[in-house]
Structure formats: structure tokens, C-alpha cells
Amino acid sequence: MTATALTATDLCCRRGDRWLFSGLSLGLARGQALHILGPNGLGKSSLMRMLAGLLPPSPDPVSGITGAIAWDGPLALMDERHGLDLGQPLGAALAFWARVDGPVPDEAIKGLGLANLLDVPVRYLSTGQKKRAALARLIGQHAPNWLLDEPLNGLDVAACAMVERMIERHCAGGGACIIASHQSLGIPGLTRLDLAEYAL
Ligand SMILES: Nc1ncnc2c1ncn2[C@@H]1O[C@H](COP(=O)(O)OP(=O)(O)OP(=O)(O)O)[C@@H](O)[C@H]1O
Q: Where's the ABC transporter domain (predicted)?
């Protein structure tokens, strides 16, 4: 029997006075990667933050039911908030998080093309370099469950392929991953959820 990484039931989301989606239930098994799709503004990032525990599910406007989210094991969220100190060199900014989460392996730093950037202040990094740094933080968290919000934005073609292989390896090693992205993803066995089917 496949072990469950996530069970989420009856999720509903309201932001301000705008209802986004309702009646969303999803399960994620160990080894599974799930692609969340949907047009701009539908609530993909909101769903990711909800699954990360940063945004509470809203009570359903009709049934009044408030959904539930249960993870097996820790999770790591990667979104546009990389959380790295803009005033610090990249190495020092990553070292701060290494004291919280654990170190980023040297081979990951090299593989992400960051080895020559460790003395560059985070604020001077390009968009793609900041994204690579955020991926380093993700790896440093050593979490079995990944939530990746637009992980390919700003990355060049080779780096996109590298991220796809990273996700594939993570899942092959028993991890689980949810990816919100407008881009198509070349990941074997990837399953898909179209948030438009739950839009209010
Ligand atoms: N803190 C907030 N307060 C009120 N409304 C918000 C808040 N954050 C987001 N929203 C609104 O919620 C809606 C969904 O936003 P969200 O970022 O989740 O969509 P998305 O599907 O990820 O969009 P995109 O594809 O453009 O990234 C948008 O209309 C947005 O303006």
C-alpha cells in the first residue's frame, strides 16, 4: 500500500471579499508529484499557502464546513519570498538558514551554479540566481514534502530541466511534491489538478 503524504478535504478559500474556490479535496501519496494549474488570480498561490499552514481554510459559504489539511511529515514551501537577507552576501544569508534548517550540501550549491556567487550580496543577484538560491534553501530544509509555487519562473532552459530532475529524484526517494505553475513540466508520472474546476 502506498503511504499517504497529504490528505486535504473540503478546502474553500476567500481572500478579502473575493471567493476563489470551494469543495477542493486532494490526496498526495509518497513518491507523487502533483501539478496545480489554473488561470491568473484563481487562487493557486493561496492554495499553496493554505496547504503550507500559512492561510486558514475558509468555511464553505453554503455548507459552513471548514476543511482540514493533514501532512505526514514536515513540509517546505518555496515561493517568491526567498527569505534571504538582501544586505548579506549569499553565503552568509544561506548560513543563517543553515543554522535554522540544516546545511545545504556542497554538491547542491555547485549543481545550482551558486558556488561562485557566495560572496555576492543577495540584492545584486539576478532573478534566476535568486530563484536558484531559493532552491538551495528548499534543499537545506531536508523536508520530505515540497510545495513549489512557480519554481521555474526566471530560470533558463537548462535550470528548468535541472529543477524537473530535482523533483523527479525527490519523489523517487520517497518525497512528495506539489507544484503550482503556468509552465508545462517534464516529470514522469506527474498528476494534474485544474483549480478552475473548483472556482466559485
Ligand atoms: N492578502 C490578500 N488579501 C486579499 N486578496 C488577496 C490577497 N492575496 C491575494 N489576494 C487575491 O486572491 C486572488 C488569488 O490570488 P493568488 O495569488 O492566489 O492567485 P494565483 O492563481 O496564484 O495567480 P497567478 O497565476 O497570477 O500567480 C487574487 O484576486 C488576489 O488579488
A: 6-197
